[in-house]
Amino acid sequence: MLLSLIGEQPIPILLADRAIRPQRHILAHSEKTRRLAEHLQSLLPHAEPLFLEDAYDLEEIRRRFEQVYRPGMIFNLTSGTKPMAWAGYEVARSRQAQMVYLESEKKQSKLYRFVFRDDGIVQSSDFLPASINLDDYLLAHGLKPESHLPASNAQEVALWRFLQEQVDECVNNLKFPAFEIDFLVRRGNQVAVIEAKDTTKSKRFGIDQLTTITGREYLGTYTGRIWVVSKLPGQQLQDLAKAYDIQVVQVDIREAAPGRWRLTPASQQRLQKALDIVLGAPPPVAS
Fold first, then answer.
1. 111, 127, 143 — which closes off a domain?
2. How many domains does the chain have?
3. Domain-located, residue 286
4. Percentage of residues of the chain with pLDDT beyond 70
5. Is 141 helix (H, G, I), strand (E, B) or coil?
6. Do 266 and 251 belong to one domain?
7. Which range of residues forms the domain containing residue 162?
8. What is the pTM of this model?
9. In what order do the strands lie in the sheet with 190-196?
10. Which pLDDT value is given to residue 30?
11. Maximum separation of any 2 CA atoms in the chain, in Å
């Protein structure tokens, strides 16, 4: 049995569930995070909600956790408010229950496990294998594209061919009611949005698209951001992109054969570097 604290990011909860594989999964949420808990329930049929009236009432949260506690329960303290985490820790400590925490900040999924012993806490950790796909990622955020179209121009074709060799999964031209995604890519458990817009269309169109798509209301701030351009924007826009943690990549294309568009070697190197930054370096190829 797993009890997770629901915050603003659903993916750490989904990854912990895929790693632990509980028979029951309790999603402790507030009114603010009710929507995310519902999205997670759609992916986790064994999950059930635990509504917290006040996500900052430490004693009341502790009491609710005590009510649902069962022997063998694991407490996932990755998300939620600090009072939720404090209450979860206190109940876990008093019951000598296991706790887990998922680290995602270093472009890798690392699950820490904490077990109480008479002489203190024993800590261990392991890296999680890829356990989600892009459909999972979208559904966990409550998103489903209205349409999915093929590459429509030479640049998109060249990018598509290159990305297929660099990532585990790639989809393009996804249309949603509020926005469009040029490319959505995944390497392991890390996901990024790539916007490939002509800089002459709007000086900051790519930045606006990326910040909207990866806002808290949509794909969340853990989603990587890459802005592919045919011509580098001015320094002020480059600085703005950097402030938003957006990788700006200038690419050129060439026609390797009639109708067969490819990125130039220099462009491939620049885009590969950006992918490694936002998705983490790919695992080494076994010899």
1. 127
2. 2
3. no
4. 96
5. coil
6. yes
7. 134-279
8. 0.89
9. 147-148, 169-175, 180-187, 190-196, 224-229, 247-250
10. 96
11. 72
Judgement on whether residues 58 and 173 belong to the same structural domain of the protein: no
Statement to judge: residues 120 and 237 lie in one domain: no
| HSE-up of residue 167 (Cα within 13 Å, Cβ side) | 32
**Alpha-carbon distance values, 231 to 27, 161, 193, 242, 277 (Å):** 46, 21, 19, 17, 21
Residue ranges in the chain whose pLDDT is less than 50: 286-287
Rounded to whole angstroms, how far apart are CA atoms 141 and 162?
27
Is 117 part of a structural domain of the chain?
Answer: yes
The pLDDT score that the predictor gives to residue 199 is 53
CA distance 186 to 171: 9
Tell whether 203 and 227 lie within a shared domain. yes
Q: Is residue 287 part of a domain?
A: no
Residue that terminates a domain, selected from 109, 127, 145? 127
pLDDT tens for each residue of 184-242: 999 999 999 999 975 555 567 788 889 989 888 889 878 999 999 988 888 999 999 99
Q: What is the per-residue pLDDT for 198?
A: 59
The total of other beta-carbon atoms located within 10 Å of residue 54's CB is 12
- What does the alpha-carbon distance between residue 212 and residue 179 come to, in Å, rounded to a whole number? 8
**pLDDT of res. 177:** 87
CA distance 220 to 224: 9
Look-up of token digits 């998705």: 279
CATH number, domain with residue 197:
3.40.1350.10
| 284 domain residue, yes or no | no
For strands 224-229 and 190-196, give the pairing: parallel
Q: What pLDDT score was predicted for residue 284?
A: 64
Among candidate residues 187, 139, 140, 2, the one with its CA nearest the CA of residue 78: 2
Q: Are residues 152 and 234 in the same domain?
A: yes
pLDDT recorded at residue 256: 77
Tokens of 169: 């999964």
